[in-house]
Amino acid sequence: MDEKDLELLRILEENSRLSAEEIATMTSLTAEEVAARVSALEAAQVIKGYSTVINWEKAGNGEVSALIELKVSPERDYGYDRIAERLSRFRQVKTLRLMTGTYDLQLLVTGKNMQEVSRFVSEYVAPMDRIRETATHIIMKSYKENGNTLFELREPERLPVSP
Amino acid sequence: MRNYVSKRAEEIPPSRIRKFFDLVLTMEDVISLGVGEPDFRTPWNICESSIYSIEQGTTSYTSNKGLQTHRDGLSRYLAQHYNLRYSADTEMIITTGVSEGLDIAVRSIVDPGDEVLIAQPSYVSYGPCVTLAGGTPVPVRCTEKDHFRLNPDSLAEKITGKSKALIINFPNNPTGGVMTESDLKAIADIVIDHDLLLISDEVYAELTYEKKHCAAATVSDLWERTITLNGFSKAYAMTGWRIGYLCAPQELLEAALTIHQYIMLCAPVMGQVGAVEALRSAEEEKNSMVNEYRLRRNMFIAGLNRIGLPCHVPEGAFYAFPSVKTTGLSDVEFAERLLKEQRVAVVPGSVFGAGGEDHLRCAYAVSRKDLGTALQRMDEFIKTL
User: Fold this and answer.
1) A26:B41 CB<8 A
2) Do the bridges between strand B136-141 and strand A148-149 make them parallel or antiparallel, or are there none, so unpaired?
3) Interface touch B17/A26, C-beta < 8 Å
4) What is the pLDDT of residue A154?
5) Is A32 part of a structural domain of the chain?
6) Which residues of chain A make contact with B298, given a CB cutoff of 8 A?
7) Shortest distance, CA A29 to any CA of chain B (angstroms)
8) Average pLDDT, chain B
9) What is the DSSP string of B335-358?
10) How much is the pLDDT for A61?
11) Pair A27, A76 in one domain
């Protein structure tokens, strides 16, 4: 991993749809070098995948998201890992993190509607061994996701030509 | 009725950028590479601190020199980043943009009849400021062959018994040229030999890509005869805040301060508060903007050379300065036709004085997407020639 790799990662993190040719002109590498480096980063699992930031509210599919806080009794030898990995495998769980503070695991869960989310929590998550307590917070509106603001920002007004 | 306009004001030629500006306004779907300012928003922490200070009622005049905290922060910043040593108390004025700094610097040193050498191509204000102060601007041509650095021989050629000062601006608007320490040393020898004063406008200092910026006042014994001008506009995307600064040895500073206190009193306090925050905690935002300019530059310069507009690699600022010589058009013809036929606005290089003819100033402070579209349109245009 060198400075060029880090630069590629920063560029791809912001926009993973750029072609190897486009990235090549920005980084003074050849398109082949870019492609080779990206493949190596994928193989090393530094790049875990490519996704799209979508404003689902605007897309109007009516999906519901919830943040779920779990208090969990850790396991001897494994701590939180085994239960966290189990929870991670549900397709409904989009993000899962171990937290400091008043609870342990934080899940971001999505479903078609509120019923689906609450059924998932009450039927699959809450009954699991070692889960002591759950608190479900429905997300009302999202203003920023992964560094992208979801509200309209007016373009800064610049003079069309200035010295 | 008499003609009330002063002879001095009449002497100033109207800005030739104005004509382009008016033309662009009449057109739609124009991609403008003619804008000499960042396309980023001011980092939010800077805005927030200024908003908060207004809520707290910080809306009064500051001392003529500017807020003490501002000058203290700046003095530390310049020492750390550029090894530039200026006392916050006696060698620094916060100005209303570099524009004011330039004006008071020139006015504090120029007497009628004095000649002021100006390294060109250059920002359009230097000449008129000298004229307004009663001096005579003397252009010194920088050429593409020298990567638009100031050539010591070209400078020496223009020196006369009336020469009083030299104005330089590196990294340069419009060429993107920079001066290394050894380049500046060669200039320093001439400046010192002829007992000239140096005004160094370093507003693009933070926007250097390959090498670290070398501040003129740190070279040889230039400090004692240099007025350093800089500001927050370009590095922190704060053009409309109008905050700059002038640093100079005490005696020179006192003269500039006298003019500043009568014509400006102080720089706007809200802007100063924002600038304090910029110095304190916008380093990361600044670096990410600089990095983005560098990526755009690489992409844009490669594109210009590909479509047949040869361009040296600008090592600073956010301007490319390609030559149009091979197209057979003058810079003005090229720019006018490109705008009318392909809706891309660039500024003819001759607007920026000696050495600018046959070149275009293209600011790459626009999104990568717009840069890509602009390149396509320029390519189309060149194919029709």
Assistant:
1) no
2) unpaired
3) no
4) 81
5) yes
6) 25-28
7) 10
8) 96
9) HHHHHHHH-EE-EEGGGG-TT-TT
10) 74
11) no
CATH code: domain of residue A78: 3.30.70.920
B7-42+284-383: CATH topology is Aspartate Aminotransferase, domain 1 (3.90.1150)
Indicate yes or no: CB of B299 within 8 angstroms of CB of A156: no
Tell which residue, A116, A55, A61, A73, has the closest CA to residue A91.
A116
The model's pLDDT over A15-58, given as tens digits with 9 standing for 90+, comes to 999 999 999 988 989 999 999 999 999 999 999 999 888 887 78
User: Per the structure, how many domains does chain A have?
Assistant: 2
For the cut 80, the answer to whether the pLDDT of residue B43 exceeds it is: yes
Token reading at A148: 């992208």
Domain interval for residue A73:
62-141
- Residue A148 in domain: no
What residues of chain B lie within 8 A of the CB of A26, using their CB? 295-296, 298-299, 368
The residue written with tokens 């999104």 in the block is B367
Q: In terms of domains, do A10 and A75 share one?
A: no
Output the pLDDT for position A163: 85
Backbone angles phi, psi at B189, to 5 degrees: -55, -45
pLDDT on residue A156: 76
Joined tokens for residue B67: 């807020």
Helix axes B269-281, B44-55, angle to 10 degrees: 140
Numbered residues of chain A with Cβ closer than 8 Å to any chain B Cβ: 10-11, 22, 25-28, 153, 156, 158-163
Helix (H, G, I), strand (E, B) or coil at B279: helix
Residue type, A157: E
Q: Are A74 and A109 in a shared domain?
A: yes
What pLDDT digit, counting tens, does each position of A73-105 carry? 999 999 999 999 999 999 999 999 999 999 999
Closest CB to B35: pick one of A11, A25, A158: A158
Q: Domain B45-281 belongs to what topology?
A: Aspartate Aminotransferase; domain 2 (3.40.640)
Q: Which residue has the tokens 């891309």?
A: B344
Q: Where are the domains of chain B?
A: 7-42+284-383, 45-281
Nearest-Cα residue of chain A relative to residue B304 = A25
A48 in a domain, yes or no?
no
pLDDT of residue A60: 75
How close B88 comes to chain A (CA, Å)?
31
Q: How far apart are CA B359 and CA B241, in angstroms?
A: 31
3-state class percentages of chain B: helix first, strand second, coil last, to nearest 5: 45, 15, 40
Of B32, B37, B299, the CB nearest to A25: B299
Judge if A70 and A123 occupy the same domain. Answer: yes
In this model, does residue B329 exceed pLDDT 80?
A: yes
Q: Are residues A91 and A134 in the same domain?
A: yes
Task: Convert the pLDDT of each residue in B198-238 to its tens digit.
Answer: 999 999 999 999 899 999 999 999 999 999 999 999 999 99
Amino acid sitting at position A94:
K
Give pLDDT, residue B107: 98
Mean pLDDT, range B62-76, rounded to an integer: 98
pLDDT at A78: 95
Q: Distance from CA of residue B164 to its chain's centroid? A: 21
Residue A20 tokens read as 């190897």
* Residue B21: closest CA among B320, B341, B319, B339: B339
d(CA B1, CA B193): 51
